[in-house]
Write a structure and sequence with these properties.
The chain is of the alpha+beta class. It has 3 domains: 225 residues, 2-Layer Sandwich (Nucleotidyltransferase, domain 5), CATH 3.30.420; 71 residues; 83 residues, 2-Layer Sandwich (Gyrase A, domain 2), CATH 3.30.1360.100. Helices cover 45% and strands 27% of the residues. The strands form 5 sheets. Strands 8-7-6-9-12 form a 5-stranded mixed β-sheet, with helices on both faces. A 4-stranded antiparallel β-sheet has the order 13-14-16-15, with helices on one face. The longest helix has 76 residues. It is elongated, with a radius of gyration of 48 Å. The relative contact order is 0.08.
């Protein structure tokens, strides 16, 4: 956000004409604002609209989800709006929440006022990130500088020729309104606001009156004389017995600084009209679409380069590697010959699983007596090597002991015992044992 000073204080009634001195001053401020926005704010901007153009109401609603809260606030505002609801932009600021009630500040601004504001600044709607209200921006500045008490405070301030009043409870702005007229009329409006506060938000002691700036409250918008703001504050002090604190604009900062602070804190309050948000969403969609198209074109270009350029690069690489292999071919052939001979020698020298060695291992596993073989078959093949034994034993225990000894041998991978049968006449046991040799992987 870039503050543009008095240029942002142009109300919706300014025509920008040049027929008199006031018109020329207004046109000058508008020209300065346009130049500032164009030169110093090239991207998204946050606008702060004068609260005199808005209707602000503090509402106490049942605690519920944000969507229903917005709907309830709209229903209560419709009976008080000076225009048709469709012609107003509405936003809700949640001030406090408890288990039962939620206190919100609902603000409504005529859409025509906002459109005129943007047109005078020459600002495209899709460039507006957020639209705040000056009363909320000022309350944030007062909170930041510790100017508020934990009780009820009255804030008197003015922007240009607009005189304003805020009544705040524990730093929460519950009444934001303009006041005008004579000194007595202004005091009457302040008293009515305090009575409204007691009726809607309970009774509290007014601890402090803040008087911001040495400005003069005019009896009427067109009159030249008026009542100093400090005099109104002194009358409140005498009537309410509260503290008066005078602040210059330099003590709290410009109101637009409060809007910038709220934007930096990512405030959800945004009084932009739905049409502005739709245009911004449409612009964002178009920007995203062009980004996707740009990425697609880049991916297509890379793919085309890969499709047509990679074969040529591979051919060049293959040709280079082939040239290099020509010098290594004799050495490769010599190494392969030596490797083949070594493998053949190892194969002939490795007799660990020969028929004689395996027979010796089987014999070592035989029991001392009570078992004999009727068949011993050794088969060694590339896929599987095994020994098949058929025999006769005096009892089954000898067969199982023999099988266990075979399983413990380091030369055999596993064994499968089958066909264990007891002969009727002799009571001897026949069996068949398949032993699988353990091959090197």
């Amino acid at each position: 956000m870039v503050p543009v000073g008095d240029a942002l204080r142009v109300s919706s009634d300014d025509t920008g004409g040049t027929d008199d001195e006031a018109g020329r001053a207004t046109a000058s401020r508008l020209a300065e604002a346009r130049q500032t926005v164009a030169q110093q704010v090239p991207g998204m901007v946050t606008l702060v609209v004068d609260h005199s153009q808005a209707m602000c109401r503090a509402l106490v609603l049942p605690t519920t989800d944000p969507t229903e809260l917005m709907g309830m606030a709209m229903l209560q505002l419709e009976n008080q709006l000076p225009f048709v609801a469709d012609e107003m932009a509405v936003a809700v600021e949640v001030l406090s929440v408890d288990e039962v009630n939620t206190t919100v500040l609902a603000c409504a601004v005529p859409i025509a006022t906002l459109d005129g504001f943007a047109d005078r600044l020459g600002l495209a709607r899709e460039r507006v990130r957020r639209l705040d209200v000056s009363g909320l921006a000022l309350s944030r500045l007062l909170q930041r500088h510790g100017c508020l008490t934990a009780e009820r405070d009255v804030v008197l301030f003015a922007e240009g020729d607009v005189q304003s009043l805020m009544v705040m409870d524990a730093g929460l702005p519950l009444i934001i309104r303009t006041v005008n007229g004579s000194s007595d009329e202004i005091m009457r409006q302040i008293r009515l606001s305090l009575v409204q506060m007691e009726a809607e938000h309970g009774s509290r002691i007014v601890r402090r009156v803040l008087c911001i700036g040495e400005v003069t409250m005019s009896p009427t918008p067109s009159s030249e004389g008026g009542t100093p703001l400090s005099d109104i504050a002194e009358r409140l002090k005498a009537e309410l017995g509260c503290e008066v604190r005078r602040l210059a604009e330099e003590d709290v900062g410009m109101i637009v600084h409060g809007g910038a602070l709220r934007s930096a804190e990512e405030s959800a309050f945004d009084v932009q009209p739905p049409s502005w948000k739709e245009r911004k969403a449409s612009a964002s969609f178009r920007k995203g679409l062009w980004r996707v198209l740009g990425i697609g074109v880049a991916v297509w270009a890379i793919g085309a380069l890969y499709l047509y350029g990679m074969p040529w690069l591979l051919e060049r690489r293959i040709a280079t590697e082939t040239e290099g292999l020509k010098f290594l071919a004799p050495s490769v052939r010599a190494v392969n010959n030596v490797r083949t001979r070594v493998l053949l020698i190892n194969a002939y020298m490795d007799r660990r699983l020969s028929a004689l060695d395996t027979l010796h291992e089987v014999v070592q596993a035989l029991p001392p007596a009570g078992m004999e073989f009727s068949e011993y078959r050794y088969r060694r093949e590339e896929r599987e090597s095994r020994i098949t034994i058929r025999g006769i034993a005096d009892n089954t225990q000898l067969v199982y002991d023999f099988n266990n000894q075979i399983d413990r041998s380091p030369l055999f991978e596993r064994s499968v015992l089958s066909g264990v049968t007891t002969e009727r006449g002799s009571r001897r046991v026949t069996f068949e044992l398949a032993i699988h040799l353990k091959e090197d992987k």
